[in-house]
From TrEMBL:
Designated name of the protein: tRNA pseudouridine(55) synthase
Keyword Iron-sulfur: no
Keywords: Isomerase, tRNA processing
Single annotated GO MF: tRNA pseudouridine(55) synthase activity
EC number: 5.4.99.25
Alphabetical GO biological process terms: tRNA pseudouridine synthesis
InterPro entries found in the cross-reference section: PsdUridine_synth_cat_dom_sf, Pus10-like, Pus10-like_C
UniProt record similarity statement: Belongs to the pseudouridine synthase Pus10 family.
Domain annotation Pus10-like C-terminal: ranges: 2-215
Length: 219
């Protein structure tokens, strides 16, 4: 689980500049590395969320491959101790079910990325109130799916901030691979329909986004 925003999944650099001070990979692999003493490690998650998105619920499955270790193995007791240390010593992440994996289990973790349904809680803002009629029209999508035509996103980093922002809470359950931020603001027409188009093209965007559940069973 990732409890705070501003934490990337793995170290995030642009050139020599590290954009996020902390990463899930470093916070979990670091304590384990003190025992295994590897040359390096590879952190593989079942999907990923942006650094500004929290991962709540039961968290996201992952595995870490440690390379060229001095120590040959690590015991379940040591992993349990490390898990407690991780969960006690930092406010950013929580780890559960740390254990050694067999090679055949690794593909299961990566395959979940393309199949698991996810539920999100979004705090969105709009520049004018959404009418009660429009809110009622959106309620039908709690009972029937909304099919999106969604292209690879254009990440618009610098948007002009409006003078008025009104906030609404939105909960979505989506198929794997859905871009939630783009569904809300429309991504310059590259996602159809979008929440923005469903409420008559008001300005709409994400203010805060959380993953609150991934529908999977692991371990």
């Amino acid at each position: 689980m990732k409890l705070l925003r501003g934490v990337s999944q793995t170290p995030f650099f642009v050139g020599d500049l590290k954009l996020a001070e902390n990463s899930v990979s470093e916070l979990i692999a670091g304590p384990i590395s003190t025992i295994l003493k590897p040359e390096g490690h590879n952190f593989v998650g079942s999907g990923r969320e942006d650094a500004d998105v929290r991962m709540l619920g039961t968290g996201r499955p992952f595995y870490i491959e440690f390379k060229e270790c001095i120590a040959e193995t690590i015991s379940p007791e040591q992993l349990s101790t490390i898990q407690n240390e991780i969960n006690t010593n930092n406010p950013f992440v929580r780890a559960t079910h740390l254990k050694l994996l067999q090679k055949e289990e690794l593909s299961k973790i990566t395959s979940l990325e393309n199949s698991a349904m996810k539920t999100y809680s979004c705090l969105i803002w709009v520049n004018e109130p959404i009418s009660s009629e429009k809110l009622q029209s959106l309620e039908k999508y709690t009972k029937e799916p909304l099919v999106l035509d969604q292209n690879t996103p254009i990440r618009v980093l610098h948007r002009r901030s409006p003078g008025i922002r009104l906030f609404y809470q939105l909960v979505l359950t989506t198929q794997a691979g859905t871009y939630i931020k783009e569904f809300v603001h429309g991504d310059m027409g590259r996602t159809e329909p979008s929440l923005r188009s469903l409420i008559d093209n008001q300005t709409a965007d994400i203010f805060e986004l959380d993953v609150i559940d991934i529908d999977l069973e692991f371990p």
